[in-house]
Amino acid sequence: MPLPTPEDERACRVAIDTGGTFTDIAVNRPDNSVFVWKVPSTPHAPDEAVIAGLTEALSEVAAHPHEVAHFVHGTTVATNTVITRTGARVGLVTTDGFRDLLAIGHQTRPSLYDQTARRPHPLAPAELTWEVRERLAADGSELTPVDQAQLAEVTSQIRAAEPDVVVVSLLNAYVNPAHEHEIVEVLRKAGVARSVFAATSVTSEMREYERTSTAVLNGYVQPKIAGYLDRLDKRLSQVGVPARLWVMQSNGGLLGSRVAQEQSVRTVLSGLAGGVVGAARWARQLDLPSVVSIDIGGTSTDIALIRNGVPDEMTAGEIEGYPLRMPMVDVHTIGAGGGSIAWQDSGDSLRVGPHSAGARPGPVCYGQGGTDITVTDAHALLGRLGDSLLDGRLPLDLPVARHRLSEFARKVGLGDTETAAGILHVVNATMGRGIRKVSIERGVDLRQCTLMAFGGAGPLHASELIRELGMRAAVVPPHPGIASAVGMLDTPVRHDFARSVSAMDASELPSVSAALDSLAAQARDFLADSEGISPADAVIERAVDARYLGQSFELRVAWTDDFAELRRAFDTIHEEHYGFCDPDAALEIVTARVTVTAAWQEQHVEPHRTTGGVPEAVGRRRAHFDGEWYDTPVYRREQVPAHARLTGPLVLHQLDSTTVICPGQACWHDEHGFLHIHPEEAR
């Protein structure tokens, strides 16, 4: 079928992003305006908050579920399953002699000088790992066929162990998956588990440890994701939503619910990818060449580098110490957010995070039973939040928070104000280190970068962060607290396909080109068969992973069949990433990659903001900045017209977030509603 277009005058597009504290809803109405809404998350059953948020948001815009033409969901179910170790019992079948592959890994310690640091235990434990006699050579040729008699014994052992999922990952199967498929077929016929699959069906790239780890992670989260998405799909149908359920995946694209249930590991970074995709689109819209996006939520801060409107990507990463081998947006996550708890370490130093108060009980000022002072409490007690959030729907209990702060301050040995300010200083320093990691450590000059701040708490920290880091400016999008959901509204369907190849000169490029053609055909067929999208709507991008001969890791380069041009492009990218290139080194191409995307035919356009003078403040209150209390004006952000220049200190309130402008800074809206923050003398 072709991609759906909102031709119906009443059609709405909805994106819902589930976070640790709030579930965010964005509704793109037929007039192209966006309505945003927030409801508390329900971690025990995330679909409850999704349905509640959808129902409330549609009611607010006088729309009905049957008018939803497009529905996108970002979920943290896979992430939380790995973090909390509540996944499936995964069995692993591997080549004879390689049962300890996951336990040995790279034989490196997580932290070189920390003798207490340990790698996490394999998600497929030794008692659920079986070996089968078979062997393929490095080129995929068969050395030893599958021992059918031994496989029959292994099948009986697996059936007796009753695993939830069985993964088959064999040596060199990425070149030739025949043995994996043969064993999978036998185990499926024997009914040894609810799900049996080959590692090459998840990722078919070289590096056995990463490939096996990725496949095992897929098996570990698959039952939870499959059950959740199936339940959500049914509940959406029950409330009358006719639209297909699309799920945000780690590579910054969408995949269908059925595919997500099979390849669940692709949703591990689902929740945070939407904001990065949105930030990249806004960077292109504002013509900003170097952007650092920072998404500050209740539990964590997600930071990404965006160059020329394209977020950095990686083909390998990890979650909770487990390697992942698949394309992902390159996001650096730190345990610092609005719910991060302030505490005192053994040396009596003030620390903040990474542990969080979460959605419940949450910060003390939320009045839901929280007892630990958090970053949000510090903001509230320094006069930056007022007496409520969410336009009055969440009143803040400031007296109780003030009492708990006083108790904590006495323990720390500081005054109340100094303690609250110290909490913000500590958490800003943590966030600053994260920003430096994705910029300065990659050879990018922060002084030339713009900070794109969003998430519920992003605009609270943006002003102080750009001042402390020397960044040129900050930009806050129109709906910062719902940015991930808004970013998902226009996200294209995307799938990635890869195959290991080998080429070192022009004479070997035809084999790489043939591999790319084969992958492109596979991509089109997959889009049609699995996602129901016509190949005519598909856009194919070809690339290769290359490296200097002898290097251990690769860089992605756009494909061209001209080896000299390919070499020049690689040298340029290598110099951008590492500060040098080596014209004398031999170039080795090791992976062929194809990305297929299908974009929605109508893009969302932000409503234009009218120009005008500086509006009247809706109130004033005492707020603390730079060691002093200021009589600070408070504005409603939606009342500030385009190009009206405001100077700090000031506070801007809106439904989904609060923006703080420090003394010595100024801010203004452009016509599209983006708030620009910069030093007072800079504009």
TrEMBL record:
- What's a single GO MF annotation on this record? 5-oxoprolinase (ATP-hydrolyzing) activity
A GO BP term, please? Answer: glutathione metabolic process
Per UniProt, residues of the Hydantoinase/oxoprolinase N-terminal domain are 13-190
- Which superkingdom is the protein from? Bacteria
Gene Ontology CC: one annotated term: cytosol
Q: Where is the Hydantoinase A/oxoprolinase domain?
A: 211-494
**Protein name per its UniProtKB record:** Hydantoinase/oxoprolinase family protein
Family matches, as PANTHER family: 5-OXOPROLINASE RELATED, HYPOTHETICAL 5-OXOPROLINASE (EUROFUNG)-RELATED
**Domain Acetophenone carboxylase-like C-terminal, residue spans:** 511-677
